[in-house]
Amino acid sequence: MITQEEFFQNLSDLNSRIEDACEKSGRPRSSLTLLPVTKNWPSEVVKYCKNAGLKTVGENRVQEAIEKMSDVPNFDFELIGHLQSNKVNMATGNFARIQTVDSMKLLERIGAASEKKSKCQKILIQVNAGDDPAKFGITVDEAELLVERALEINSIQLNGLMTIAPFIEGDTKVASKCFAKLRVLKERLELKTGAELPELSMGMSGDLKEAIAEGATIVRVGSALFGKRDT
Ligand SMILES: *Cc1c(COP(=O)(O)O)cnc(C)c1O
């Protein structure tokens, strides 16, 4: 595992990359949030993030995240991994935001759990904008119904959309197309519903430049900050 000092160096390098990409796209740095992804790493690295003044981390497993929440109190966690129905109760109200809502069934269950806990759960809808059979996410065509329903549920606050681009070694065009598709979808749904969907969570260590160019407001970065880990 990396030391805090190494993490601070990686964070500084990453911030330079992000600032560069923002500048090239003519966007202010403040229009973009970095979400460090601490999955598969111990709570210690979440503390590094907190010590660096970051506000939130992303985790992809409910149980693992809940354990880290008790190790690092007063800090926000967002769920970026697939949520199984049987974990909805555990996840709702504990995560500051659930980024991976990708079916009507899941949406309704989160809504019910959130209402029962008298909470207002922030969510993003995960769209499989790259039509990648290996990825979760609702299709672009099905997204409208889900967005409309999410806007009706009082115990849910819909903040926007999320996608994971297909990964093709040495080819970033496919990722760019996927990100552009998500942005166009968001703009169309905003017009259609009259609601604001401010967040576009897209881009990871390997394709954050492309995501920023296409309008990402949240980039989710793991390996560029913490190194690679094969678990
Ligand atoms: C692991 C993960 C990331 C971070 O990926 P890196 O390539 O390590 O930056 C981002 N988003 C999701 C959904 C992930 O599961």
Descriptive overview:
- It is a single chain.
- The chain is α/β, with parallel strands linked by helices.
- The chain has one domain: Alpha-Beta Barrel (TIM Barrel), CATH 3.20.20.
- Helices cover 42% and strands 16% of the residues.
- The chain has 9 helices and 8 strands.
- It has helices spanning 4-24, 43-51, 62-71, 88-91, 104-116, 143-152, 173-193, 208-213, 223-226; strands spanning 33-36, 56-59, 76-79, 97-101, 121-126, 156-162, 199-201, 218-221.
- The strands form 2 sheets. Strands 2-3-4-5-6-7 form a 6-stranded parallel β-sheet. It has a two-stranded parallel sheet with strand order 1-8.
- Strand 4, helix 5 and strand 5 form a beta-alpha-beta unit.
- The longest helix has 21 residues, at 4-24.
- The protein is globular and about 45 Å long.
- The model has no long low-confidence stretch (mean pLDDT 96).
- It binds pyridoxal-5'-phosphate.
- The site of pyridoxal-5'-phosphate (PLP) has 14 residues, from strand 8 and helix 9.
- Within CATH, the superfamily carries the name Alanine racemase
In N-to-C order, the SSE pattern is HEHEHEHEHEHEHEHEH
Q: Based on DSSP secondary structure assignment, what is the total number of beta strands?
A: 8
Task: Identify the overall geometry.
Answer: globular
Please mark out the parts with pLDDT under 50 across 5 or more consecutive residues, or reply none.
none
Number of domains: 1
Q: What's the CATH architecture name? A: Alpha-Beta Barrel
Strand content: 15-25%
CATH classification class: Alpha Beta
Evaluate the radius of gyration: 17 Å
Q: Give me the secondary-structure category.
A: alpha/beta
Q: Mean pLDDT, nearest integer?
A: 96
Largest sheet: 6 strands, parallel
Strand order of the largest sheet: 2-3-4-5-6-7
Terminal Cα separation, in Å? 13 Å
User: What small molecules does this complex bind?
Assistant: pyridoxal-5'-phosphate
What oligomeric state best describes the polypeptide chains here?
single chain
Which percent range fits the helix content? 40-55%
- Helix count equals 9
Question: What fold name stands as the CATH topology?
Answer: TIM Barrel
